[in-house]
Design brief:
mainly alpha; 2 domains
């Protein structure tokens, strides 16, 4: 994976975030190539490159948090369930909206207890 491909992926994520801001939805079927890109680009989060691209695209948003299929694998393992990367992607595709809804509720609850002075 080259730096150019990583930048292109980050730019696509930024475009997708812009579209989501307009209440567009992303429906796509996972291909093996897409799964490989997800695996290989996981380091973008660690390097901060993805955060920089997202920040440029959506500077009015704060507290942006993302999860990766590896997070699902780890959570499943802590509950005694083994998952492949492909199974974790399928889990996200099936459960992402419910997860986002629960995280939004939890975030709003946390926000309501913050010190606003």
């Amino acid at each position: 994976m080259t730096i150019a491909n990583n930048r292109q992926t980050a730019e696509l994520v930024a475009i997708a975030l812009n579209n989501m801001g307009e209440e567009a939805t992303m429906n796509w079927e996972s291909t093996q190539e897409q799964l490989e890109i997800i695996k290989e680009d996981a380091h973008l989060v660690d390097s901060g490159l993805l955060d920089k691209e997202i920040t440029k695209a959506r500077q009015e948003w704060y507290g942006i948090v993302r999860w990766h299929p590896e997070d699902v694998i780890a959570a499943a393992a802590s509950n005694g369930v083994e998952m492949t990367f492909e199974q974790a992607v399928a889990w996200w595709e099936k459960n992402e909206q419910a997860f986002v809804d629960r995280m939004t509720e939890a975030g709003n609850d946390i926000l309501s207890y913050m010190d606003f002075e």
